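Regression report. Comparing outputs from two consecutive submissions.

Submission 1:
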Amino acid sequence: MNSKYIEVCERLDWTVREYKDGSVDVAKQSPAGEDFSFGVSSENFVDEVKQYAAYFNVDEHVEMWIEARRNGVRGVPSSIRELVEDAEAIDKMLQELAAALAEVEDDDDSE
């Protein structure tokens, strides 16, 4: 995987773990303390990050945590407002990451 992409991720406080099978985990803690992560492939890293960001659904993310809260999962905020605000922050983090990676990809393509 292009080291420039890893540098962009780390500059935005994302952790990147690349595995021998070509899979990549991208992770960052949300403002409410969620250890948020998602998986993509190293081969299509930028495209898959952009796709994940484009299809991230704030409502679905909140619903998942509301259900977890009902089931007594520890560490889940008790306030639905906080869950919504956190999911919106995650969406913003993903959009920022996708845009930054796309910019580096465009610079690489123009060289």
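Submission 2:
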Amino acid sequence: MYRNILVPISFDDDRKIEAALSVARTLAAEGARIVLLHVIEHVPAYALHYVPGDLLKATRDGLLAELDGLSQTVPGGEGALVEGHAGRTILDFADEHEADCIVIASHRPGMQDYLLGSTAAQVVRHAACAVMVVR
């Protein structure tokens, strides 16, 4: 059983959020901490001029509300919202917060994943802790 579980959350339609949360619940020891993490990709500097500031704030607020709602469905749950490149940021967050397990949802790989790699594949290859991949 794990005491500090990280569950990266993607709000894409093809991700299986509930399946990942179910696995996290199953793997959690009594009193475990389960952090639901969403990574917002950086907006390129050249595009910032075209995005209204209130839209960025509203997006962040909406994502935080979603994470808070989801975190209430798991014991010891909490939401976290960070900005960066998804794969690298998940790995850095796991290291900084001493996660002992990462539960990440993945889609069925396509040809582009074999050539370029997906976020889940990057996490599996480089994580310092156990990683459970949910399909």
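Expected: both submissions complete independently.
Actual: both completed, but the second showed a warning that disappeared on reload.
Relevant detail on submission 2: The mean pLDDT is 89.
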